[in-house]
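Local shape tokens:
==================
===
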Amino acid sequence: CGNHARDCFLHVYWWHCDDRSQVRATDYRVPSDAPPVFRYCKETRFALGILFPDWSFWGWPEMNIRPWPQMLEEVTRENERVRWLERQPYAYWKGKPNIYRIRHQLLRCNISNGHEWNAHLFSQVLREEKPSATAFSFLLNLIGGVNLPSLTNAGLELRPPKWYKIYIEGNSWSASEKYILACNSPVLFVETPFQDILSRALVVDKHYWHINRDDMCRSIKAVVDWGNQHPEQAQLIGEQGSRFVKEEMSMDHLYDYMLHLLTEYAKLLRYKPTIPKDAVEICSESMACAANGREQDFMIESMERYVSGFDPCKLPPRHPEKESWGLLV
């Protein structure tokens, strides 16, 4: 970077794949002074970061989660097979509590001491003989009794579908979010400080119901009681949330977001990037050829095979004062 070493440090694209944020807002009085870290989620009040789509849109081979368009087709078929009114009028969650205190608190909302909280909650049991069955909580959150082929093949125990699905954070945000919303069931979204590209666009009481994290059991019971007494309104919320994630989180829109994000960020560069002489170009063939098995299958399955016949969406004009830091907040 020559004389622009500081610019190089500030404007290299950094990717952070861990759950927890590393760039704290309190460390930077001016947000634009923070290093440009791209990540899947952030704590809205305490962290800075540039939100980017997570890997699961292109599939998660280790968990046998197919790329988003193909997985969405499976979910849609199952929604048609098991209509919402045919499901049981309870809230459902199954996942790995691990060391996540909030998930242990959620499990207390099962039937206990004579209290019926209208929730069927389960801890995930790992099966050593079937590694693919040790999927993370988002996989088990999704099924809720739904009989998806890729999940059944993983050896997962299925239960009767429920009217309502619960979304709750783990170590931070959970990739289960979009899958749960796609199930045509009203989603009970436990309040969380974490935000991703999907959650920041959701509207409470339209796409999901809010659950108080400090009083989860009573909050879940109140919402389920109301939904059971007003099934048409409850079903509408489930349909609206499902429609939003299917239409607004399409791969076309996702690539629009990525294009605009990188293009707008590139405008902030104060030096001209150059390709190092020893750099090795990476293309889709070089990546896929080195992969094996399901990893290679998902790479090929998620590969775009045509050029779009329409232009990307247009961004609305931004306020001049926010030009230099809007991407970070």
In short: The CA atoms of residues 144 and 161 lie 5 Å apart. The beta strands are 14-15, 37-39, 42-43, 50-51, 88-95, 119-123, 162-167, 187-190, 194-195, 209-211.
